[in-house]
Amino acid sequence: MSTPPPNRRRDAVEKxxxxxxxxxxxxxxxGYEAVTVDMICELAGVSQRTFFNHFKTKDAAxxxxxxxTVDERAARAFIVSTGPLLAGAAQLIRVxxxxxxxxxxxxxxxxxxxxxNPMLITRQLERIEAVESEVREILVLRLKNxxxxxxxxxxxxxxxxxxxxVAGLMRFIGRSWATEAAAGRIPDVDPAAIERLxxxxxxxxx
Length: 206
Description:
Mean pLDDT: 83
Helix content: over 70%
Number of domains: 2
Low-confidence stretches: none
Structural class: mainly alpha
Shape: elongated
Radius of gyration: 20 Å
Number of strands: 2
């Protein structure tokens, strides 16, 4: 099987980033509803055909083409660990910010653009929810490994509850990103800081 020449791959990456930046800049300037694919193409200097070769919709240009996934290496370590369940489960979900992740300022602008529209926030959260069933299966394995004497049905119920808590935690993180970006600060979600916050809050829920 032949592979595309390096220059062609590099050109594709550059066009992807140009489209993403154009979509982000336009949404921040005009608002999500006012932005069209034609406007994105004009600012990015690409044709509509090129745009649709890279992205199916303008939403995809903002959210990224790659949906959230489960970090397989982290999952293997999590299953055999005895560390915090909730914080550990949340860290299994990997959200790839796309080509802009190499530029923190652009990443901050992108998060700000997503956070500017409730529908975009909802769609990003829906993408995260798509991996919830996989996270639930991993949690069942972790609970089985750590608490082998528990009833399997009870493990399933516990895994379901933890997944729901993870979803809430991810919403909190996403809105925190949007708030930081809207204030002109570069979003920085430190897993250790989230874990410390959980340690502060969870005992108060009992």
